[in-house]
Amino acid sequence: MVDPREQAYREFAQERLPSLRRLAYVLSQDWHRADDLVQGALVQIYVHWDKVSAATDRAAYARTTLVRVFLNERRTSWARRVVLVDEPPDVAARPEPDSSESLTLRSALAGLPPRQRAVLVLRFWSDLSVEQTASALSCSPGTVKSQTSKALASLRRVLPDNEHTTGRRS
């Protein structure tokens, strides 16, 4: 007989797994690392399941936990010791082939500092408001705005000039 608390967690984790994995991939740019991030987030969610299950927006709680796991990983000495190299994407793990433009954007996104990348992913990939992003990152809305501005300026410098990166039509 399965404990109802355990069953509720399993159902939640199974439901959120695909979206958490996609979000983790956008943050980390690596499917294997994304899986590790999701696993770390799900462990944290399990440990705090009573608090999570009482939350009004469990998806937001899970997303916030995942972003915090990502940012905390970047702060550890592991992230400073390990040098990531450019390698072709793992074709078997990729659900669909990427276009050249998408690969260019992902490469530029990977070059951003982790906090700026997290802000862009939460604001534009997850479509969160400034306030929701600030809450997820435990910072002020002003910090979200300044990090967004800096990140977009960095992307504009490295991406080819087109309507997607400059806001102008050709």
Write the layout of secondary structure elements.
Elements (H helix, E strand, L loop, with lengths): L3 H25 L2 H17 L1 H6 L3 H18 L1 H5 L18 H11 L3 H12 L4 H8 L3 H18 L4 H4 L4
Helix pairs in contact: 1-2, 1-4, 2-4, 7-9, 8-9
Description:
The chain has helices at 4-28, 31-47, 49-54, 58-75, 77-81, 100-110, 114-125, 130-137, 141-158, 163-166. By secondary structure, the protein is mostly helical. It has ten helices and no strands. The chain has two domains: 1-94, Orthogonal Bundle (Rna Polymerase Sigma Factor, Chain: A); 98-170, Arc Repressor Mutant, subunit A (Orthogonal Bundle), CATH 1.10.10.10.
Runs in which pLDDT lies below 50 for 5 or more consecutive residues are 163-170
Query: Any idea how many domains?
Result: 2
Beta-strand residue fraction: under 5%
Residue share in helix: over 70%
Largest sheet: none
Structural class: mainly alpha
Discrete helix count: 10
From the spread of the alpha carbons, the general shape counts as globular
The ordered string of helix (H) and strand (E) elements is: HHHHHHHHHH
- Rg, Å, rounded: 17 Å
> Could you name the CATH class of the largest domain?
Mainly Alpha
Number of strands: 0
Task: State the end-to-end CA separation.
Answer: 63 Å
Average of the residue pLDDT scores: 82
The CATH topology of the largest domain turns out to be: Rna Polymerase Sigma Factor, Chain: A
CATH architecture classification of the largest domain? Orthogonal Bundle
